[in-house]
Amino acid sequence: MPISRLFIVSLILFGPASVQASPAPERPGQAAIASPHPLATQAGEEVLRAGGNAFDAAVAVSAALAVVEPYGSGLGGGGFFLLHRAEDGHEVMVDARETAPAAARRDMFVDEQGERIPGLSLDTVLAAGIPGLPAALVHLSREYGRLPLGTVLAPAIRYAEDGFEVYSRLLTGLERKRAELAASPASAEVFFPAGDLPELGSRLRQHDLARTLRRLAEQGHDGFYAGPVAEALVAAVQAEGGLWTLEDLAGYRIVERAPIVSRYRGARIVSAPPPSSGGVVLATMLNILEGYDLQALPADAATHLVIEAMRRGYRDRALYLGDPDFVDVPVARLIHPMYAAGLRAAIRTDRAMPSDHLPGLGAREDGPQTTHFSIIDGDGNRAAVTQTLNFWFGSGIMAAGTGVLLNNEMDDFSARPGLPDGFGLVTGEGNAIAPGKRMLSSMTPTFVETPDGVAVLGTPGGSRIISMVLLGVLARVDEQASAGEMVARRRFHHQYLPDRVVHEPDALEAAVVEALRARGHELEETRRDYGNLKVVTWDYGENRVEAATDPRGERGEALVY
Question: Which CATH number fits domain 258-366+444-552: 1.10.10.60, 3.90.1310.10, 1.10.246.130, 3.30.360.10?
Fold first, then answer.
Protein backbone atom coordinates (compact mmCIF):
# COMPACT_ATOMS: atom_id res chain seq x y z
CA MET A 1 0.00 0.00 0.00
CA PRO A 2 1.27 3.50 -0.77
CA ILE A 3 2.82 5.60 1.94
CA SER A 4 1.38 9.12 1.84
CA ARG A 5 3.52 12.12 1.02
CA LEU A 6 3.06 13.14 4.66
CA PHE A 7 6.02 10.83 5.33
CA ILE A 8 8.26 13.34 3.59
CA VAL A 9 6.92 16.14 5.78
CA SER A 10 7.60 14.17 8.96
CA LEU A 11 11.08 13.18 7.77
CA ILE A 12 12.10 16.73 6.91
CA LEU A 13 10.79 18.34 10.07
CA PHE A 14 11.46 15.72 12.68
CA GLY A 15 13.87 13.12 11.32
CA PRO A 16 13.35 9.39 10.78
CA ALA A 17 10.25 7.98 12.46
CA SER A 18 12.28 5.14 14.00
CA VAL A 19 14.43 7.44 16.17
CA GLN A 20 13.40 7.26 19.82
CA ALA A 21 13.46 10.14 22.28
CA SER A 22 16.09 8.37 24.42
CA PRO A 23 17.62 4.92 24.87
CA ALA A 24 15.15 2.37 26.18
CA PRO A 25 15.36 -1.17 27.54
CA GLU A 26 15.49 -3.72 24.74
CA ARG A 27 11.97 -4.93 25.49
CA PRO A 28 9.39 -4.46 28.26
CA GLY A 29 8.92 -8.21 28.78
CA GLN A 30 5.29 -7.62 29.76
CA ALA A 31 2.19 -6.84 27.74
CA ALA A 32 -0.59 -4.39 28.51
CA ILE A 33 -4.05 -3.89 27.04
CA ALA A 34 -6.61 -1.21 27.89
CA SER A 35 -9.97 -1.58 26.16
CA PRO A 36 -13.55 -0.50 26.89
CA HIS A 37 -14.94 -4.01 27.42
CA PRO A 38 -13.58 -7.00 29.40
CA LEU A 39 -14.35 -9.46 26.61
CA ALA A 40 -12.37 -7.37 24.14
CA THR A 41 -9.40 -7.19 26.51
CA GLN A 42 -9.67 -10.95 27.06
CA ALA A 43 -9.69 -11.52 23.29
CA GLY A 44 -6.42 -9.61 23.01
CA GLU A 45 -4.91 -11.56 25.90
CA GLU A 46 -5.99 -14.87 24.37
CA VAL A 47 -4.23 -14.04 21.13
CA LEU A 48 -1.07 -12.80 22.85
CA ARG A 49 -0.87 -15.97 24.92
CA ALA A 50 -1.24 -17.99 21.70
CA GLY A 51 1.96 -16.40 20.40
CA GLY A 52 0.55 -13.36 18.67
CA ASN A 53 2.01 -9.89 18.79
CA ALA A 54 0.40 -6.50 19.50
CA PHE A 55 -0.91 -6.30 15.94
CA ASP A 56 -2.62 -9.69 16.18
CA ALA A 57 -4.07 -8.53 19.49
CA ALA A 58 -5.27 -5.31 17.86
CA VAL A 59 -7.19 -7.31 15.27
CA ALA A 60 -8.69 -9.51 17.98
CA VAL A 61 -9.71 -6.57 20.19
CA SER A 62 -11.08 -4.59 17.24
CA ALA A 63 -13.22 -7.48 16.03
CA ALA A 64 -14.40 -8.25 19.56
CA LEU A 65 -15.51 -4.65 20.06
CA ALA A 66 -17.41 -4.88 16.77
CA VAL A 67 -19.44 -7.61 18.47
CA VAL A 68 -19.79 -6.48 22.09
CA GLU A 69 -19.96 -2.70 21.51
CA PRO A 70 -22.30 -2.48 18.51
CA TYR A 71 -23.26 1.08 19.42
CA GLY A 72 -19.64 2.27 19.06
CA SER A 73 -18.08 0.39 16.16
CA GLY A 74 -18.55 -2.57 13.87
CA LEU A 75 -17.71 -4.23 10.58
CA GLY A 76 -19.94 -1.65 8.92
CA GLY A 77 -17.70 1.20 10.08
CA GLY A 78 -14.06 2.25 9.97
CA GLY A 79 -11.16 3.52 12.01
CA PHE A 80 -7.49 4.39 12.33
CA PHE A 81 -4.79 1.96 13.49
CA LEU A 82 -1.58 3.68 14.66
CA LEU A 83 1.23 1.11 14.83
CA HIS A 84 4.83 0.98 16.04
CA ARG A 85 6.95 -2.09 15.20
CA ALA A 86 9.71 -2.58 17.74
CA GLU A 87 12.22 -4.53 15.65
CA ASP A 88 12.88 -1.71 13.20
CA GLY A 89 11.01 1.31 14.59
CA HIS A 90 8.59 1.33 11.66
CA GLU A 91 5.59 3.55 12.36
CA VAL A 92 2.47 3.79 10.24
CA MET A 93 -1.17 4.67 10.42
CA VAL A 94 -3.45 2.19 8.72
CA ASP A 95 -6.26 4.36 7.40
CA ALA A 96 -9.50 2.37 7.35
CA ARG A 97 -11.78 5.40 7.12
CA GLU A 98 -15.00 4.91 5.20
CA THR A 99 -15.29 6.29 1.65
CA ALA A 100 -18.14 7.92 -0.25
CA PRO A 101 -19.74 5.64 -2.88
CA ALA A 102 -19.07 6.41 -6.54
CA ALA A 103 -22.56 7.85 -7.03
CA ALA A 104 -22.26 10.31 -4.12
CA ARG A 105 -22.94 13.95 -5.00
CA ARG A 106 -21.64 17.19 -3.53
CA ASP A 107 -25.10 18.44 -2.54
CA MET A 108 -26.85 15.16 -1.75
CA PHE A 109 -27.89 16.18 1.76
CA VAL A 110 -29.18 19.71 1.12
CA ASP A 111 -32.39 21.07 -0.40
CA GLU A 112 -32.77 23.67 -3.16
CA GLN A 113 -32.16 26.44 -0.62
CA GLY A 114 -28.89 24.83 0.47
CA GLU A 115 -30.22 23.77 3.87
CA ARG A 116 -29.55 20.33 5.30
CA ILE A 117 -32.45 17.90 4.87
CA PRO A 118 -33.19 16.61 8.41
CA GLY A 119 -32.21 12.99 9.04
CA LEU A 120 -31.00 12.25 5.50
CA SER A 121 -27.32 12.04 6.46
CA LEU A 122 -28.02 10.23 9.73
CA ASP A 123 -30.89 7.75 9.63
CA THR A 124 -31.06 6.52 6.01
CA VAL A 125 -28.91 4.28 3.83
CA LEU A 126 -27.57 7.41 2.16
CA ALA A 127 -25.76 8.10 5.43
CA ALA A 128 -23.51 5.07 5.06
CA GLY A 129 -20.02 5.23 3.59
CA ILE A 130 -18.23 2.15 2.26
CA PRO A 131 -16.87 0.35 5.36
CA GLY A 132 -13.15 0.09 6.02
CA LEU A 133 -12.81 -1.90 9.24
CA PRO A 134 -12.91 -5.41 7.69
CA ALA A 135 -10.18 -4.45 5.22
CA ALA A 136 -8.02 -3.18 8.09
CA LEU A 137 -8.39 -6.42 10.04
CA VAL A 138 -7.25 -8.45 7.04
CA HIS A 139 -4.39 -6.05 6.25
CA LEU A 140 -3.03 -5.92 9.80
CA SER A 141 -3.13 -9.68 10.13
CA ARG A 142 -1.41 -10.26 6.79
CA GLU A 143 1.23 -7.53 6.94
CA TYR A 144 2.04 -7.24 10.65
CA GLY A 145 0.66 -10.23 12.56
CA ARG A 146 2.10 -13.65 13.34
CA LEU A 147 -1.00 -15.81 13.60
CA PRO A 148 -3.58 -16.95 11.02
CA LEU A 149 -6.54 -14.58 10.70
CA GLY A 150 -8.92 -17.38 11.72
CA THR A 151 -7.10 -17.80 15.03
CA VAL A 152 -7.16 -14.07 15.71
CA LEU A 153 -10.85 -13.67 14.89
CA ALA A 154 -11.90 -16.74 16.89
CA PRO A 155 -12.79 -14.85 20.10
CA ALA A 156 -15.04 -12.39 18.24
CA ILE A 157 -16.76 -15.22 16.38
CA ARG A 158 -17.35 -16.99 19.68
CA TYR A 159 -18.83 -13.86 21.29
CA ALA A 160 -21.16 -13.37 18.34
CA GLU A 161 -22.27 -17.01 18.21
CA ASP A 162 -22.55 -17.77 21.92
CA GLY A 163 -23.62 -14.29 22.92
CA PHE A 164 -22.63 -12.00 25.76
CA GLU A 165 -24.47 -10.40 28.65
CA VAL A 166 -26.42 -7.22 27.95
CA TYR A 167 -24.91 -4.48 30.11
CA SER A 168 -26.12 -1.08 31.23
CA ARG A 169 -24.45 1.11 28.58
CA LEU A 170 -25.63 -1.16 25.77
CA LEU A 171 -29.14 -1.02 27.16
CA THR A 172 -28.93 2.78 27.32
CA GLY A 173 -27.91 2.85 23.67
CA LEU A 174 -30.76 0.56 22.66
CA GLU A 175 -33.19 2.84 24.46
CA ARG A 176 -31.81 5.95 22.75
CA LYS A 177 -31.81 4.42 19.28
CA ARG A 178 -34.90 2.25 19.71
CA ALA A 179 -37.03 3.85 17.00
CA GLU A 180 -34.32 3.69 14.34
CA LEU A 181 -33.26 0.14 15.20
CA ALA A 182 -36.85 -1.10 15.34
CA ALA A 183 -37.47 0.34 11.87
CA SER A 184 -34.81 -2.02 10.44
CA PRO A 185 -36.20 -5.61 10.50
CA ALA A 186 -32.73 -7.18 10.77
CA SER A 187 -31.70 -4.82 13.61
CA ALA A 188 -34.98 -5.42 15.42
CA GLU A 189 -34.52 -9.19 15.20
CA VAL A 190 -31.07 -8.99 16.79
CA PHE A 191 -31.59 -6.33 19.45
CA PHE A 192 -35.29 -6.78 20.30
CA PRO A 193 -35.77 -10.54 19.83
CA ALA A 194 -38.89 -10.63 22.00
CA GLY A 195 -40.26 -7.43 20.52
CA ASP A 196 -39.03 -5.32 23.42
CA LEU A 197 -35.81 -4.16 25.05
CA PRO A 198 -33.70 -7.08 26.30
CA GLU A 199 -33.29 -7.52 30.01
CA LEU A 200 -30.12 -6.48 31.75
CA GLY A 201 -27.90 -9.56 32.00
CA SER A 202 -29.68 -11.49 29.25
CA ARG A 203 -27.56 -12.87 26.39
CA LEU A 204 -27.38 -11.09 23.05
CA ARG A 205 -26.50 -13.40 20.17
CA GLN A 206 -25.59 -12.34 16.63
CA HIS A 207 -25.53 -15.45 14.44
CA ASP A 208 -25.45 -13.60 11.12
CA LEU A 209 -22.51 -11.51 12.31
CA ALA A 210 -20.70 -14.70 13.36
CA ARG A 211 -21.14 -16.08 9.81
CA THR A 212 -19.82 -12.84 8.32
CA LEU A 213 -16.77 -12.96 10.59
CA ARG A 214 -16.15 -16.58 9.58
CA ARG A 215 -16.23 -15.63 5.90
CA LEU A 216 -13.76 -12.83 6.62
CA ALA A 217 -11.50 -15.28 8.47
CA GLU A 218 -11.63 -17.85 5.68
CA GLN A 219 -11.57 -15.65 2.59
CA GLY A 220 -9.87 -12.45 3.71
CA HIS A 221 -10.81 -9.26 1.86
CA ASP A 222 -13.18 -11.08 -0.52
CA GLY A 223 -15.05 -12.57 2.42
CA PHE A 224 -16.61 -9.17 3.03
CA TYR A 225 -16.08 -7.08 -0.09
CA ALA A 226 -17.19 -9.71 -2.62
CA GLY A 227 -19.46 -12.75 -2.70
CA PRO A 228 -22.56 -13.32 -0.54
CA VAL A 229 -21.78 -10.68 2.10
CA ALA A 230 -21.16 -7.93 -0.46
CA GLU A 231 -24.26 -8.93 -2.40
CA ALA A 232 -26.40 -8.81 0.73
CA LEU A 233 -25.00 -5.42 1.74
CA VAL A 234 -25.63 -3.88 -1.69
CA ALA A 235 -29.10 -5.41 -1.91
CA ALA A 236 -30.06 -3.98 1.46
CA VAL A 237 -28.77 -0.50 0.59
CA GLN A 238 -30.29 -0.37 -2.89
CA ALA A 239 -33.65 -1.64 -1.66
CA GLU A 240 -33.90 1.54 0.43
CA GLY A 241 -32.78 3.85 -2.37
CA GLY A 242 -29.07 3.89 -1.45
CA LEU A 243 -26.06 4.32 -3.72
CA TRP A 244 -23.76 1.38 -2.97
CA THR A 245 -22.67 -0.95 -5.76
CA LEU A 246 -20.67 -4.16 -5.81
CA GLU A 247 -17.91 -2.16 -7.50
CA ASP A 248 -17.80 0.26 -4.55
CA LEU A 249 -17.18 -2.60 -2.15
CA ALA A 250 -14.74 -4.50 -4.37
CA GLY A 251 -12.72 -1.33 -4.86
CA TYR A 252 -12.28 -0.42 -1.20
CA ARG A 253 -8.65 -0.38 -0.05
CA ILE A 254 -7.00 0.74 3.15
CA VAL A 255 -4.19 3.29 2.85
CA GLU A 256 -0.98 3.27 4.86
CA ARG A 257 -0.02 6.80 5.83
CA ALA A 258 2.97 8.22 7.66
CA PRO A 259 1.92 9.58 11.07
CA ILE A 260 2.12 13.22 12.11
CA VAL A 261 5.24 13.62 14.27
CA SER A 262 5.77 16.67 16.47
CA ARG A 263 7.71 17.69 19.58
CA TYR A 264 6.67 19.11 22.92
CA ARG A 265 9.20 19.88 25.66
CA GLY A 266 11.55 17.08 24.67
CA ALA A 267 8.77 14.56 24.04
CA ARG A 268 8.11 13.03 20.64
CA ILE A 269 4.41 12.95 19.79
CA VAL A 270 3.19 10.57 17.09
CA SER A 271 -0.43 10.87 15.99
CA ALA A 272 -2.95 10.42 13.20
CA PRO A 273 -2.53 12.25 9.86
CA PRO A 274 -5.33 13.40 7.54
CA PRO A 275 -8.03 12.37 6.84
CA SER A 276 -7.95 12.50 10.62
CA SER A 277 -7.68 16.05 11.88
CA GLY A 278 -6.36 14.81 15.22
CA GLY A 279 -2.60 14.79 14.66
CA VAL A 280 -2.44 18.15 12.92
CA VAL A 281 -4.64 19.93 15.46
CA LEU A 282 -2.78 18.29 18.36
CA ALA A 283 0.60 19.34 16.92
CA THR A 284 -0.61 22.91 16.41
CA MET A 285 -1.87 23.19 19.98
CA LEU A 286 1.29 21.69 21.47
CA ASN A 287 3.49 23.94 19.33
CA ILE A 288 1.60 26.98 20.64
CA LEU A 289 1.89 25.81 24.26
CA GLU A 290 5.61 25.07 23.83
CA GLY A 291 6.13 28.82 24.22
CA TYR A 292 4.82 28.89 27.80
CA ASP A 293 5.91 27.29 31.05
CA LEU A 294 2.45 26.12 32.06
CA GLN A 295 3.64 24.54 35.30
CA ALA A 296 5.03 27.86 36.53
CA LEU A 297 1.77 29.74 35.94
CA PRO A 298 -1.30 30.06 38.18
CA ALA A 299 -4.03 27.57 37.28
CA ASP A 300 -6.31 30.18 35.74
CA ALA A 301 -3.56 31.60 33.52
CA ALA A 302 -2.43 28.16 32.34
CA THR A 303 -6.01 27.07 31.63
CA HIS A 304 -6.63 30.27 29.68
CA LEU A 305 -3.61 29.59 27.45
CA VAL A 306 -4.65 25.98 26.82
CA ILE A 307 -8.12 27.20 25.83
CA GLU A 308 -6.65 29.74 23.42
CA ALA A 309 -4.46 27.02 21.88
CA MET A 310 -7.53 24.82 21.45
CA ARG A 311 -9.43 27.69 19.83
CA ARG A 312 -6.74 28.15 17.18
CA GLY A 313 -6.14 24.46 16.53
CA TYR A 314 -9.83 23.78 15.99
CA ARG A 315 -10.12 26.87 13.80
CA ASP A 316 -7.49 25.37 11.48
CA ARG A 317 -9.43 22.11 11.46
CA ALA A 318 -12.45 23.92 10.07
CA LEU A 319 -10.47 25.83 7.45
CA TYR A 320 -7.84 23.53 6.04
CA LEU A 321 -8.33 19.82 6.64
CA GLY A 322 -9.77 17.04 4.49
CA ASP A 323 -8.81 13.86 2.63
CA PRO A 324 -5.19 14.41 1.44
CA ASP A 325 -5.82 12.21 -1.60
CA PHE A 326 -8.38 14.75 -2.82
CA VAL A 327 -7.29 18.15 -1.51
CA ASP A 328 -3.97 19.82 -0.82
CA VAL A 329 -3.75 19.89 2.97
CA PRO A 330 -0.96 22.29 4.07
CA VAL A 331 0.34 19.93 6.74
CA ALA A 332 3.95 21.13 6.71
CA ARG A 333 2.86 24.70 7.40
CA LEU A 334 0.22 23.86 9.99
CA ILE A 335 2.53 21.74 12.16
CA HIS A 336 5.60 23.97 11.81
CA PRO A 337 6.75 25.68 15.04
CA MET A 338 7.10 29.00 13.23
CA TYR A 339 3.43 28.90 12.23
CA ALA A 340 2.51 28.27 15.87
CA ALA A 341 4.71 31.17 16.91
CA GLY A 342 2.61 33.45 14.74
CA LEU A 343 -0.58 32.14 16.31
CA ARG A 344 0.91 32.53 19.79
CA ALA A 345 1.81 36.16 19.13
CA ALA A 346 -1.86 37.07 18.90
CA ILE A 347 -2.77 35.48 22.23
CA ARG A 348 -3.35 37.90 25.10
CA THR A 349 -2.70 36.57 28.56
CA ASP A 350 -5.36 38.82 30.08
CA ARG A 351 -8.22 38.46 27.59
CA ALA A 352 -10.00 35.76 25.60
CA MET A 353 -9.93 36.18 21.84
CA PRO A 354 -13.53 35.98 20.55
CA SER A 355 -13.66 33.28 17.91
CA ASP A 356 -15.47 35.53 15.44
CA HIS A 357 -12.36 37.75 15.48
CA LEU A 358 -10.47 34.86 13.84
CA PRO A 359 -11.32 34.31 10.16
CA GLY A 360 -12.78 30.89 9.49
CA LEU A 361 -15.82 28.67 9.65
CA GLY A 362 -18.09 27.33 12.35
CA ALA A 363 -17.60 24.08 14.14
CA ARG A 364 -19.45 20.87 14.81
CA GLU A 365 -19.04 17.85 17.04
CA ASP A 366 -18.33 14.41 15.59
CA GLY A 367 -20.22 11.37 16.79
CA PRO A 368 -19.47 10.49 20.40
CA GLN A 369 -20.11 6.77 20.11
CA THR A 370 -16.65 5.85 18.94
CA THR A 371 -14.35 3.41 20.76
CA HIS A 372 -10.62 3.17 21.45
CA PHE A 373 -8.08 0.67 22.79
CA SER A 374 -4.32 0.72 23.45
CA ILE A 375 -1.82 -2.17 23.41
CA ILE A 376 1.88 -2.81 24.12
CA ASP A 377 3.26 -6.33 23.83
CA GLY A 378 6.29 -7.91 25.50
CA ASP A 379 8.57 -6.98 22.60
CA GLY A 380 7.57 -3.31 22.65
CA ASN A 381 5.27 -3.39 19.62
CA ARG A 382 2.39 -1.03 20.18
CA ALA A 383 -0.98 -0.13 18.71
CA ALA A 384 -3.38 2.75 19.35
CA VAL A 385 -6.69 2.12 17.62
CA THR A 386 -9.80 4.28 17.37
CA GLN A 387 -12.80 2.99 15.43
CA THR A 388 -16.41 4.06 14.95
CA LEU A 389 -19.83 3.89 13.31
CA ASN A 390 -20.33 7.61 14.15
CA PHE A 391 -23.58 8.04 16.17
CA TRP A 392 -25.13 5.36 18.43
CA PHE A 393 -25.38 2.20 16.26
CA GLY A 394 -24.54 4.28 13.16
CA SER A 395 -27.60 4.62 10.95
CA GLY A 396 -29.34 1.85 12.90
CA ILE A 397 -29.88 -0.07 9.66
CA MET A 398 -28.66 -3.66 9.50
CA ALA A 399 -28.22 -5.52 6.22
CA ALA A 400 -30.30 -8.71 6.44
CA GLY A 401 -28.26 -11.90 6.61
CA THR A 402 -24.98 -10.15 7.48
CA GLY A 403 -25.33 -8.86 11.05
CA VAL A 404 -23.61 -5.69 9.82
CA LEU A 405 -24.88 -2.32 11.03
CA LEU A 406 -24.38 0.44 8.49
CA ASN A 407 -22.48 3.53 9.61
CA ASN A 408 -23.68 7.12 9.21
CA GLU A 409 -20.25 8.59 8.54
CA MET A 410 -21.41 10.51 5.44
CA ASP A 411 -22.68 13.04 7.97
CA ASP A 412 -19.04 13.87 8.74
CA PHE A 413 -18.65 15.45 5.31
CA SER A 414 -19.42 19.12 4.83
CA ALA A 415 -22.91 19.21 3.26
CA ARG A 416 -21.90 22.72 2.22
CA PRO A 417 -19.24 25.07 3.66
CA GLY A 418 -20.32 26.54 6.98
CA LEU A 419 -23.35 24.30 7.42
CA PRO A 420 -23.35 22.33 10.70
CA ASP A 421 -23.93 18.60 10.56
CA GLY A 422 -25.68 16.49 13.15
CA PHE A 423 -23.23 17.49 15.91
CA GLY A 424 -22.43 21.13 15.33
CA LEU A 425 -18.77 21.29 13.86
CA VAL A 426 -18.59 22.85 10.40
CA THR A 427 -15.90 22.19 7.80
CA GLY A 428 -15.10 23.77 4.44
CA GLU A 429 -14.50 22.80 0.83
CA GLY A 430 -11.65 20.49 1.78
CA ASN A 431 -14.23 18.18 3.36
CA ALA A 432 -16.86 18.39 0.62
CA ILE A 433 -18.50 15.16 -0.56
CA ALA A 434 -16.86 13.50 -3.57
CA PRO A 435 -16.93 9.93 -4.93
CA GLY A 436 -14.35 7.72 -3.24
CA LYS A 437 -13.35 10.43 -0.77
CA ARG A 438 -12.77 9.86 2.94
CA MET A 439 -14.60 12.13 5.36
CA LEU A 440 -12.67 14.16 7.92
CA SER A 441 -12.39 12.69 11.41
CA SER A 442 -11.33 13.77 14.91
CA MET A 443 -10.01 10.34 15.92
CA THR A 444 -6.58 10.82 17.52
CA PRO A 445 -4.72 7.60 18.39
CA THR A 446 -1.38 8.81 19.76
CA PHE A 447 2.03 7.73 21.05
CA VAL A 448 3.97 9.90 23.51
CA GLU A 449 7.69 9.20 23.87
CA THR A 450 9.61 10.93 26.65
CA PRO A 451 13.10 10.26 28.02
CA ASP A 452 11.38 8.20 30.72
CA GLY A 453 9.13 5.99 28.63
CA VAL A 454 6.21 5.60 26.25
CA ALA A 455 2.47 6.19 26.54
CA VAL A 456 -0.14 4.88 24.10
CA LEU A 457 -3.47 6.68 24.30
CA GLY A 458 -6.72 7.65 22.64
CA THR A 459 -10.41 8.05 23.35
CA PRO A 460 -13.88 8.31 21.85
CA GLY A 461 -15.77 11.56 22.28
CA GLY A 462 -16.37 13.23 18.92
CA SER A 463 -14.79 16.65 18.50
CA ARG A 464 -13.68 16.48 22.15
CA ILE A 465 -11.32 13.61 21.28
CA ILE A 466 -8.50 15.96 20.30
CA SER A 467 -8.75 18.14 23.40
CA MET A 468 -8.90 15.06 25.65
CA VAL A 469 -5.74 13.67 24.05
CA LEU A 470 -4.10 17.10 24.40
CA LEU A 471 -4.83 17.14 28.14
CA GLY A 472 -3.49 13.59 28.40
CA VAL A 473 -0.26 14.55 26.63
CA LEU A 474 0.18 17.62 28.84
CA ALA A 475 -0.33 15.50 31.95
CA ARG A 476 2.20 12.94 30.76
CA VAL A 477 4.91 15.37 29.66
CA ASP A 478 4.51 18.29 32.08
CA GLU A 479 3.56 16.31 35.17
CA GLN A 480 4.99 12.82 34.49
CA ALA A 481 1.50 11.45 35.15
CA SER A 482 0.98 7.69 35.34
CA ALA A 483 -1.51 5.89 33.11
CA GLY A 484 -4.05 5.91 35.93
CA GLU A 485 -3.58 9.62 36.55
CA MET A 486 -3.92 10.41 32.85
CA VAL A 487 -7.30 8.70 32.45
CA ALA A 488 -8.70 10.19 35.66
CA ARG A 489 -7.76 13.81 34.86
CA ARG A 490 -10.75 16.18 34.73
CA ARG A 491 -11.47 17.75 31.33
CA PHE A 492 -12.37 20.97 29.58
CA HIS A 493 -12.80 21.72 25.89
CA HIS A 494 -13.00 24.56 23.38
CA GLN A 495 -13.55 23.90 19.66
CA TYR A 496 -13.46 27.44 18.15
CA LEU A 497 -17.21 27.58 17.53
CA PRO A 498 -19.51 27.62 19.35
CA ASP A 499 -17.36 30.05 21.32
CA ARG A 500 -17.57 28.53 24.77
CA VAL A 501 -15.57 26.39 27.15
CA VAL A 502 -17.30 23.12 28.00
CA HIS A 503 -16.02 21.42 31.15
CA GLU A 504 -16.84 18.45 33.32
CA PRO A 505 -18.29 18.96 36.78
CA ASP A 506 -15.49 19.88 39.20
CA ALA A 507 -12.94 20.11 36.37
CA LEU A 508 -12.20 23.74 37.21
CA GLU A 509 -12.01 25.28 40.68
CA ALA A 510 -14.47 28.09 41.39
CA ALA A 511 -11.66 30.66 41.45
CA VAL A 512 -10.44 29.49 38.04
CA VAL A 513 -13.96 29.71 36.61
CA GLU A 514 -14.31 33.25 37.94
CA ALA A 515 -10.92 34.28 36.54
CA LEU A 516 -11.71 32.79 33.12
CA ARG A 517 -15.02 34.61 32.97
CA ALA A 518 -13.25 37.82 33.87
CA ARG A 519 -11.03 37.28 30.84
CA GLY A 520 -14.12 37.02 28.64
CA HIS A 521 -14.57 33.25 28.36
CA GLU A 522 -18.07 31.79 28.33
CA LEU A 523 -18.18 28.56 30.34
CA GLU A 524 -20.66 25.70 30.33
CA GLU A 525 -20.55 22.82 32.79
CA THR A 526 -21.63 19.51 31.31
CA ARG A 527 -24.34 17.50 33.00
CA ARG A 528 -22.12 14.44 33.02
CA ASP A 529 -18.53 13.37 32.51
CA TYR A 530 -17.40 12.60 28.97
CA GLY A 531 -14.79 10.53 27.16
CA ASN A 532 -13.32 7.07 27.75
CA LEU A 533 -9.53 7.43 27.60
CA LYS A 534 -7.49 4.23 27.33
CA VAL A 535 -3.79 4.38 28.19
CA VAL A 536 -0.93 1.91 28.39
CA THR A 537 2.56 3.00 29.41
CA TRP A 538 6.07 1.57 29.42
CA ASP A 539 8.36 3.03 32.09
CA TYR A 540 12.00 2.71 31.02
CA GLY A 541 13.55 3.20 34.44
CA GLU A 542 11.79 0.27 36.07
CA ASN A 543 11.11 -1.51 32.76
CA ARG A 544 7.48 -1.77 33.81
CA VAL A 545 4.22 -1.49 31.89
CA GLU A 546 0.93 -0.12 33.18
CA ALA A 547 -2.59 -0.13 31.72
CA ALA A 548 -5.51 2.06 32.75
CA THR A 549 -9.09 2.51 31.65
CA ASP A 550 -11.09 5.65 32.16
CA PRO A 551 -13.16 5.59 35.38
CA ARG A 552 -15.91 7.29 33.33
CA GLY A 553 -16.27 4.12 31.26
CA GLU A 554 -18.65 1.49 32.55
CA ARG A 555 -17.00 -1.81 31.68
CA GLY A 556 -13.46 -1.11 30.56
CA GLU A 557 -10.73 -3.54 31.53
CA ALA A 558 -6.99 -2.94 31.81
CA LEU A 559 -4.69 -5.95 31.77
CA VAL A 560 -0.96 -6.37 32.43
CA TYR A 561 0.75 -9.76 32.35
Answer: 1.10.246.130
